[in-house]
Amino acid sequence: xxxxxxxxxxxxxxxxxxxxxxxxxxxxxxxxxxxxxxxxxxxxxxxxxxxxxxxxxxxxxxxxxxxxxxxxxxxxxxxxxxxxxxxxxxxxxxxxxxxxxxxxxxxxxxxxxxxxxxxxxxxxxxxxxxxxxxxxxxxxxxxxxxxxxxxxxxxxxxxxxxxxxxxxxxxxxxxxxxxxxxxxxxxxxxxxxxxxxxxxxxxxxxxxxxxxxxxxxxxxxxxxxxxxxxxxxxxxxxxxxxxxxxxxxxxxxxxxxxxxxxxxxxxxxxxxxxxxxxxxxxxxxxxxxxxxxxxxxxxxxxxxxxxxxxxxxxxxxxxxxxxxxxxxxxxxxxxxxxxxxxxxxxxxxxxxxxxxxxxxxxxxxxxxxxxxxxxxxxxxxxxxxxxxxxxxxxxxxxxxxxxxxxxxxxxxxxxxxxxxxxxxxxxxxxxxxxxxxxxxxxxxxxxxxxxxxxxxxxxxxxxxxxxxxxxxxx
Length: 474
Ligand code: SF4
Ligand code: SF4
Description:
Layout: H1 35-53, E1 58-59, E2 62-63, E3 65-68, E4 73-76, E5 79-82, H2 86-107, H3 110-115, H4 117-134, H5 147-173, H6 175-183, H7 190-210, H8 213-218, H9 220-223, H10 225-228, E6 235-238, H11 240-243, H12 249-257, H13 270-273, H14 294-305, E7 313-316, H15 318-321, H16 331-352, E8 357-362, E9 370-371, E10 376-387, E11 393-398, E12 404-405, E13 411-414, E14 418-429, E15 435-446, E16 451-462, E17 472-473
Parallel strand pairs: 9-17
Antiparallel strand pairs: 1-2, 3-4, 4-5, 6-7, 8-10, 9-10, 10-14, 11-13, 11-15, 12-14, 15-16
One iron/sulfur cluster binds next to helix 13 and helix 14.
């Protein structure tokens, strides 16, 4: 006999985007065009222009930003870093993280509500277009709107997503390659086209279907808010003292006449209707709140209409909302700036001392050395030469002291901000070896006249008695 199993019934919604029966609760936020909305439009336009222009801007002939993962070169404001510069890149990343922590401690989730591409493109590109094509409160999939309007909307979304994908990928492959790909035949570069198609599909999935769930369910930054914020941080908050007890307009008069205290909140629910993540800010600070200030604009509008002071919902801090002043001393406001100073100073120091040419000895494959009849030892050496300058350079290797170069002088040309390997053979005497290897050095000279001595570890015979390891005798 089958077990009688019933799902537990939930009185309240577990997630703002989920109905109690497990179905998706589709957000259809109203417009609230107040002062914060106008300021956010200005910020959004600036950020979209910047995002679109950055890969095209050249600094010293290089893109302002190019994160070339394939060649492991990262160009940031005209300076190219290679993946070998791990310390520099690590400090750069740590500096970015500490800056985010500091900004969050001071200004809360200002990034989420004002600067994040997810919010900017959803709220100021996709959502306004949706309203334009199928109305202010569209149903899921545009149901109810004429077919041609829905088709036009999805066509426009596709074009915008394609443009967005091209811009996004330009940060990783550069605008020249992107132009070449977009003006060429997709069959000539199927992999690039496949990456482009997948990126467009992901953009469409996110901005048309997934939307606010990226902030409420996926984004790690949103999950970290409980540790990044404290009671002094700037948040969007409802003034409970002033707003409660709530009463609808119809009840207010009666309550006021019977000498009951009535708060300023008239239960109009405008603050929840405009919220893009579907929460009620009157329930207090919540992880889902992206601090977009839409509810502030909506409530201010209501307050003006009922002739009450604005700011029932406002930017404030938990402390201020509870009537206490913000703490003047905060550990995190001492710690983060101190760490930032250390990181930025280290970064500046490393950049100032950054070598223009980096040479490293690499392991060679095959025989370690050859012992010749005349008592000389020939050892193959491989050097990786990294040219961090803006010009192509030709490097020549010269022998030094008792380390001679066998054959012609090795020479290699290395393109700007690139690296190349050079393989050559050094000749030494067997008697100069002690325990299977010795030190020596060669001189590397470039066509610009710069010289540097490169120390080598040279494999050879053990106590000069004969070949060992993978060496061979001739
Ligand atoms: S918009 Fe203001 S008045 Fe209306 S329900 Fe929200 S807090 Fe209350
Ligand atoms: S509660 Fe207000 S600030 Fe928070 S996400 Fe909703 S509308 Fe934006």
